[in-house]
Amino acid sequence: MKIKKDNSNAYEWGQQCKGWHLVNTKDLSVIQELMPQGTAEVNHKHLKAQQFFFILKGKATFLINGEKHHIKQHEGIHILPNIYHQIRNETDTPLEFIVISQPHTRGDRIDEALRDKSGFPFII
């Protein structure tokens, strides 16, 4: 079956951001995402999953272990497990990208801000 946004499961996340799950298996996730201007993902890491982000349109700012990286259209960035990262759209135009996760990130994410009173992170 041909895969495209129109026949994929759509969802909303964050601050009016959108995603389309193009591939959604236990071992692989491929998502096309759209982030309006001025939006950002929560700083987080994955314990097992590695991720590759490829920018289709616009310019993304990634915060990776506290260091900024600017990735423009037709460029990508590879994020290994256990690395805190955040994607931001600091521009005045929408950002479109593909994110590939292997294995799937379900149950494998730790948000930097989500820690219990002892400092132990919650996994979501």
Could you please describe the fold and organization of this structure?
The structure is a single chain. With 124 residues, the chain is an all-beta fold. The chain has a domain at 39-90 and 107-114: Jelly Rolls (Sandwich), CATH 2.60.120.10. It is built from no helices and 11 strands. It has strands at 9-13, 17-24, 29-35, 44-46, 50-57, 59-64, 67-72, 76-79, 85-88, 95-102, 109-111. The chain has a 6-stranded antiparallel β-sheet, with no helix packed on it. A hairpin with a 2-residue loop joins strand 6 and strand 7 (67-72). The termini are far apart. The model is unreliable at 120-124 (pLDDT under 50).
Between the first and last Cα atoms, what is the distance in angstroms?
31 Å
Taking all Cα atoms into account, the compactness measure Rg is 14 Å
Give helix % range: under 10%
Number of helices: 0
Strand content: over 45%
Q: Low-confidence segments, ≥5 residues, pLDDT <50? A: 120-124
CATH class of the domain at 39-90 and 107-114: Mainly Beta
Number of strands: 11
Q: How are strands sequenced across the largest beta sheet?
A: 1-2-3-10-5-8
Shape category? globular
Q: At the fourth CATH level, what is the homologous superfamily of the domain at 39-90 and 107-114?
A: Jelly Rolls
> What oligomerization state is this entry in?
single chain
What is the fold named in CATH at topology level of the domain at 39-90 and 107-114? Jelly Rolls
Architecture (CATH level 2) name of the domain at 39-90 and 107-114: Sandwich
From the helix content, strand content and strand pairing, which structural class follows?
mainly beta
What is the averaged pLDDT score? 91
| Biggest sheet character | 6 strands, antiparallel
Which sequence of SSEs, written as H and E, runs from N to C? EEEEEEEEEEE
